[in-house]
Amino acid sequence: MDRTPEKHTHILEDGSVVEHTHADDERPHTHTHQNTKAVLDRLARATGHLEKVSKMVRDGVDCSEVLIQLAAVKSAINNTGKLILKDHIEHCLVDAIEQGDMSTVEELKKAIDQFIK
User: Fold this and answer.
1) Which run of H or E residues covers position 81?
2) pLDDT at 13 over 80
3) Distance (Å, rounded) from C-alpha 69 to C-alpha 49?
4) pLDDT at position 18, please?
5) 1 burial class (0-12, 13-18, 19+ CB within 10 angstroms)?
């Protein structure tokens, strides 16, 4: 697809403004996302849960308790994925479709397939 990169603007919910272009490269829709802080916070929580699981295993904690903590890790990761997906659909995917870039739609389909395995 041969197109000239066009600069455009997004106004985020917090009022901040993000300007970017979509150049013809491997990742044409890379830009600042609205939920970056929330995603990083959730990943930090998931990391904390996972570290706790490691400690529990080292300390010989009952398997039932370890499994419950592992469920918390899975939930944290899944919820983080949902937040990333929501952000991607609301911003990147909308931009890609507006630009006629259907390859981004295909990439999203592949990513969803991998995420929900």
Assistant:
1) helix 63-87
2) no
3) 7
4) 57
5) exposed
Compute the C-alpha angle 3/85/16, nearest 5°.
70
Q: Which tokens go with 103?
A: 């390859």
Tens-place pLDDT, residues 55-70: 999 999 999 999 999 9
Beta bridge partners of 17: 11
Give the C-alpha separation, 54 to 9, whole Å. 44
Say how far apart CA 62 and CA 66 lie, in whole Å: 7
Section 22-36 average pLDDT: 59
Domains of the chain: 31-115 (1.20.58.1000)
Task: Name every residue whose Cβ is closer than 8 Å to that of residue 68 and which is 6 or more positions away in sequence.
Answer: none
What is the model's pLDDT at position 12? 53
From residue 10, alpha-carbon distances to 14, 16, 20, 49, 97 in Å are 11, 8, 9, 35, 15
Q: How far apart are CA 30 and CA 19, in angstroms?
A: 11
Token reading at 54 = 């490691």
